[in-house]
């Protein structure tokens, strides 16, 4: 049976869930809602990092050490989280992960010292790895179950969620609300909505989880294609993490922005990431994954140069916007690519990719912080040009689906 017939048959499967008002909505829309809700509270934390730094009287290097807690917590947990998600499925991982994550996401803002900030971020990293992996596995399973290409838009909603959270953080700064209360209130508001949405995810047939339980227990070296895709996504997410943690401080210390203006860099960046992801599925069907990835790679390099050379805040914001477009579709394209590899189960490949992606997202900021302490934050951010260039070289590993099949699916979908 051809891939086209498989996708067309799967598309007619009656996977649906009830929305918050009791109406029936397609499964893919419910998954997109979950992608939107998950990062809001974390986004509210990002513009408050300068406030936490000032409250604890931390230098750039001290803050970088404290920020290491997040990648440490994530990276030590993700291998175990991968096996857990393979066993219980993406739906249950999302439900439990949401509860854990939203319960602890405000802890760093309450930390009274750099050491406790470090340990609080470890806890957040542990929670983050579980819910993020569950979401990506569920999105991949949903694509297979419905026959619809949704991965890029799922991450577009994630970007809108973190952008919404960052705007909440900026608004909290403007009204003088303390970091810990603003993040805690955001998490409390999000939790019941997230739980309702997660619980309404249907339990997919065992056939969709069977491949996860069939993974061999012995070690199997990753293929060259998997390594290449992981290298590609590492540079993309390293840039995302750096902009998330350091854009506000860069605008404050280097561009001399003041007040709520310091948070606009990440808000602009996140908006353009979301915009790129919402158009990503269509663009992939029209031009192919490799061509889109190369164009975006060039845009991210150009945007980072604008940020580094900008003499004033407005031009720096334009640079952040270009970087956002450049990194927008990288991770969604990578998830689809590794899930298509035939040398191992998709869940295993997605877990490996998530490990590489989160490594870049969470390890990059502390490295930039150390360099910023020694050489200045402008030089620290300039290091991102190296992984972005490597990502551009690795785009050849993003072997796309046949363009006619992708275009047909995009054309037939009504979201």
TrEMBL record:
<feature type="transmembrane region" description="Helical">
    <location>
        <begin position="223"/>
        <end position="243"/>
    </location>
</feature>
<dbReference type="InterPro" id="IPR051788">
    <property type="entry name" value="MFS_Transporter"/>
</dbReference>
<feature type="transmembrane region" description="Helical">
    <location>
        <begin position="181"/>
        <end position="202"/>
    </location>
</feature>
<feature type="transmembrane region" description="Helical">
    <location>
        <begin position="30"/>
        <end position="49"/>
    </location>
</feature>
<feature type="transmembrane region" description="Helical">
    <location>
        <begin position="315"/>
        <end position="338"/>
    </location>
</feature>
<keyword id="KW-1133">Transmembrane helix</keyword>
<feature type="transmembrane region" description="Helical">
    <location>
        <begin position="116"/>
        <end position="135"/>
    </location>
</feature>
<dbReference type="InterPro" id="IPR011701">
    <property type="entry name" value="MFS"/>
</dbReference>
<feature type="transmembrane region" description="Helical">
    <location>
        <begin position="377"/>
        <end position="399"/>
    </location>
</feature>
<keyword id="KW-0472">Membrane</keyword>
<dbReference type="GO" id="GO:0022857">
    <property type="term" value="F:transmembrane transporter activity"/>
</dbReference>
<dbReference type="GO" id="GO:0016020">
    <property type="term" value="C:membrane"/>
</dbReference>
<dbReference type="Pfam" id="PF07690">
    <property type="entry name" value="MFS_1"/>
</dbReference>
<feature type="transmembrane region" description="Helical">
    <location>
        <begin position="156"/>
        <end position="175"/>
    </location>
</feature>
<dbReference type="InterPro" id="IPR020846">
    <property type="entry name" value="MFS_dom"/>
</dbReference>
<feature type="transmembrane region" description="Helical">
    <location>
        <begin position="93"/>
        <end position="110"/>
    </location>
</feature>
<feature type="domain" description="Major facilitator superfamily (MFS) profile">
    <location>
        <begin position="27"/>
        <end position="403"/>
    </location>
</feature>
<feature type="transmembrane region" description="Helical">
    <location>
        <begin position="61"/>
        <end position="81"/>
    </location>
</feature>
<keyword id="KW-0812">Transmembrane</keyword>
<protein>
    <submittedName>
        <fullName>MFS transporter</fullName>
    </submittedName>
</protein>
<feature type="transmembrane region" description="Helical">
    <location>
        <begin position="287"/>
        <end position="309"/>
    </location>
</feature>
<dbReference type="InterPro" id="IPR036259">
    <property type="entry name" value="MFS_trans_sf"/>
</dbReference>
<feature type="transmembrane region" description="Helical">
    <location>
        <begin position="350"/>
        <end position="371"/>
    </location>
</feature>
<feature type="transmembrane region" description="Helical">
    <location>
        <begin position="263"/>
        <end position="280"/>
    </location>
</feature>
């Amino acid at each position: 049976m051809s891939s086209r017939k498989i996708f067309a048959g799967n598309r007619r499967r009656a996977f649906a869930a009830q929305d918050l008002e009791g109406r029936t909505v397609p499964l893919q829309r419910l998954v997109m809602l979950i992608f939107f809700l998950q990062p809001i509270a974390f986004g509210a934390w990002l513009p408050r990092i300068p406030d936490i730094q000032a409250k604890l009287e931390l230098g750039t290097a001290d803050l970088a050490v404290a920020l290491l807690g997040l990648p440490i917590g994530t990276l030590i947990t993700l291998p175990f989280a991968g096996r857990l998600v393979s066993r219980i499925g993406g739906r249950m991982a999302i439900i439990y992960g949401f509860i854990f994550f939203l319960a602890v996401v405000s802890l760093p803002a309450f930390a009274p010292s750099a050491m406790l900030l470090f340990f609080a971020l470890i806890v957040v990293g542990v929670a983050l790895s579980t819910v993020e992996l569950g979401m990506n596995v569920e999105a991949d399973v949903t694509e297979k179950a419905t026959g619809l290409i949704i991965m890029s838009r799922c991450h577009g909603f994630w970007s809108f969620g973190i952008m919404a959270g960052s705007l909440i953080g900026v608004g909290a700064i403007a009204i003088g609300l303390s970091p810990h209360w603003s993040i805690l209130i955001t998490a409390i508001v999000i939790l019941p909505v997230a739980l309702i949405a997660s619980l309404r995810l249907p339990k997919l047939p065992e056939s969709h989880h069977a491949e996860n339980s069939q993974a061999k227990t012995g070690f199997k070296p990753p293929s060259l294609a998997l390594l290449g895709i992981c290298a590609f996504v590492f540079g993309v997410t390293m840039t995302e993490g750096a902009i998330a943690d350091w854009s506000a401080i860069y605008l404050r210390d280097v561009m001399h922005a003041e007040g709520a203006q310091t948070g606009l860099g990440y808000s602009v960046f996140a908006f353009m990431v979301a915009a790129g992801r919402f158009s990503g599925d269509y663009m992939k069907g029209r031009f192919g994954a490799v061509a889109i990835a190369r164009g975006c790679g060039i845009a991210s390099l150009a945007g980072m140069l604008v940020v580094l050379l900008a003499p004033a805040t407005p031009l720096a914001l334009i640079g952040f916007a270009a970087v956002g477009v450049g990194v927008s579709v990288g991770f969604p394209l990578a998830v689809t690519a590794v899930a298509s590899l035939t040398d191992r189960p998709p869940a295993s490949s997605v877990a490996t990719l998530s490990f590489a992606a989160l490594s870049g997202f969470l390890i990059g900021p502390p490295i930039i912080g150390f360099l910023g302490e020694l050489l200045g934050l402008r030089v620290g951010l300039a290091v991102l040009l190296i992984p972005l260039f490597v990502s551009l070289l690795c785009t050849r590993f993003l072997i796309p689906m046949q363009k006619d099949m992708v275009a047909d699916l995009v054309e037939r979908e009504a979201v």
